[in-house]
C-alpha cells in the first residue's frame, strides 16, 4: 500500500510538472484546428511529437509512419503500472469505441516507458486485452528515451530490491494525425465522451 500511495503521489506531481510544457492562451486565427483546441501549446504543436522507431508486439521495428496511419491517441506508460495506466488506457479505448459508434476510425497506441520488463510480447498482450485495435510498442532503452523526448514526456524507474519496481511517468494522452502530427493533448480528468467530442472535431477539420 505504501508503494501504491507513493506511486500515485509521484505520478500526480509529475503530471503537474508535465503541465508546465503547456500554456492556455487564445486560439490562433490562422490555425484551422483553433475551434477544436482547449488551449494553445507553448512553442506550437510542432514542438511536440515527431519521428520514432520502436518495436511492435511481434518484435518488428516500426516507425511513426507505420503506426500513425489514422487519427491516433498515444499514451506513454508501462504494463506493471498498478493504477494510473490501466485507467488512462481504458479511458482511451472507450473513447475509440465511442468514436467508432459515431463513424470515426481511430487507433489507441500504448508506448512503454519500461523496456526492461515490457518485452514486445508483454506489451502486445497488454494492449490487445484493453482493445483489439490498440497498438503496443516498446524498444531498447535508447529507442524509448528518444520517443519520450519527442513527446516531452517524463519517466523514471524507482529504486527497488526486486523486479517489482514502480516507474514515475507523466500521464498525458496525445492526439496525433497522419500528415499533421501532434495536435492536442488530454489530461487525466478528461472523460471518454469529452475526448471523443474533441477528437471528432479535429478529424472533421482535417
From TrEMBL:
It holds the Pfam family SCO1-SenC. Keywords: Copper. It comes from the Bacteria. Residues 43-206 form the Thioredoxin domain. InterPro entries: SCO1/SenC (IPR003782), Thioredoxin-like_sf (IPR036249), Thioredoxin_domain (IPR013766). PANTHER family: ELECTRON TRANSPORT PROTIN SCO1/SENC FAMILY MEMBER, LINALOOL DEHYDRATASE_ISOMERASE DOMAIN-CONTAINING PROTEIN. Belongs to the SCO1/2 family. This is SCO family protein. It comes from Thalassococcus lentus.
Amino acid at each position: 500500500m505504501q508503494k501504491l500511495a507513493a506511486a500515485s503521489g509521484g505520478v500526480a506531481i509529475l503530471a503537474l510538472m508535465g503541465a508546465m510544457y503547456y500554456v492556455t492562451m487564445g486560439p490562433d486565427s490562422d490555425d484551422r484546428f483553433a475551434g477544436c483546441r482547449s488551449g494553445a501549446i507553448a512553442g506550437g504543436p510542432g514542438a511536440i511529437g515527431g519521428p520514432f522507431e520502436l518495436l511492435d508486439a511481434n518484435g518488428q521495428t516500426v516507425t511513426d509512419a507505420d503506426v500513425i496511419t489514422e487519427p491516433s491517441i498515444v499514451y506513454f506508460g508501462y504494463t506493471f503500472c498498478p493504477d494510473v495506466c490501466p485507467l488512462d488506457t481504458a479511458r482511451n479505448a472507450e473513447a475509440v469505441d465511442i468514436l467508432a459508434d459515431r463513424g470515426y476510425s481511430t487507433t489507441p497506441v500504448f508506448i512503454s516507458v519500461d523496456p526492461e520488463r515490457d518485452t514486445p510480447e508483454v506489451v502486445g498482450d497488454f494492449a490487445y486485452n484493453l482493445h483489439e485495435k490498440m497498438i503496443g510498442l516498446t524498444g531498447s532503452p535508447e529507442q524509448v528515451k528518444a520517443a519520450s523526448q519527442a513527446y516531452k514526456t517524463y519517466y523514471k524507474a524507482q529504486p527497488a530490491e526486486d523486479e517489482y519496481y514502480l516507474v514515475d511517468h507523466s500521464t498525458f494522452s496525445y492526439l496525433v494525425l497522419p500528415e499533421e502530427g501532434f495536435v492536442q493533448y488530454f489530461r487525466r480528468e478528461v472523460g471518454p465522451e469529452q475526448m471523443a467530442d474533441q477528437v471528432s472535431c479535429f478529424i472533421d477539420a482535417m
